[in-house]
Recover the amino acids of this structure.
């Protein structure tokens, strides 16, 4: 399991760098578009769509990173008042539901991707799959990272139970 964890650490690091690159890309592109439009009166017709699609890829790649790091938003005021063991069980149940959501989202995203595989984005004339595949990738990574968290939590709970 440690080798898988190290591989996921490397994947998470690669995702972070990809998100940094994409964020820098759409930020610079938007800045250039503002300069071109307002200073030079010659807007780039394609920049808004490209920046939007880069933003979508950033969101879909960073959501699994946020999930894995545990920095996602949660309302746990009631849960924190429960016994520690109950908190752990609720955590595993919640992460299992997120895992199931990732699997279902991935499945539906693949189905949608298949329906739009031969269509192109108006204006840019690039295939829709260049954008919609971000949902498949993001959903699959959410599934993988949530599954890893569930497995690690169960292993940790068993180890703690043996140590009691």
């Amino acid at each position: 399991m440690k080798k898988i964890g190290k591989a996921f650490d490397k994947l998470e690091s690669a995702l972070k760098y990809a998100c940094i690159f994409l964020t820098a890309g759409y930020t610079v592109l938007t800045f250039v578009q503002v300069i071109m439009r307002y200073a030079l009166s010659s807007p780039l017709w394609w920049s808004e769509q490209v920046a939007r699609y880069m933003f979508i890829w950033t969101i879909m790649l960073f959501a699994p990173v946020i999930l894995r790091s545990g920095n996602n938003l949660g309302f746990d005021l009631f849960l924190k008042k429960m016994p520690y063991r109950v908190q752990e069980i609720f955590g595993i149940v919640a992460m299992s539901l997120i895992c199931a959501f990732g699997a279902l989202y991935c499945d539906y995203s693949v189905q949608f991707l298949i329906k739009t595989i031969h269509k192109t984005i108006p204006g840019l004339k690039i295939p829709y799959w260049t954008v919609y595949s971000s949902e498949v990738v993001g959903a699959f990574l959410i599934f993988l990272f949530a599954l890893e968290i569930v497995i690690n939590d169960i292993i940790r709970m068993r180890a703690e139970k043996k140590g009691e």
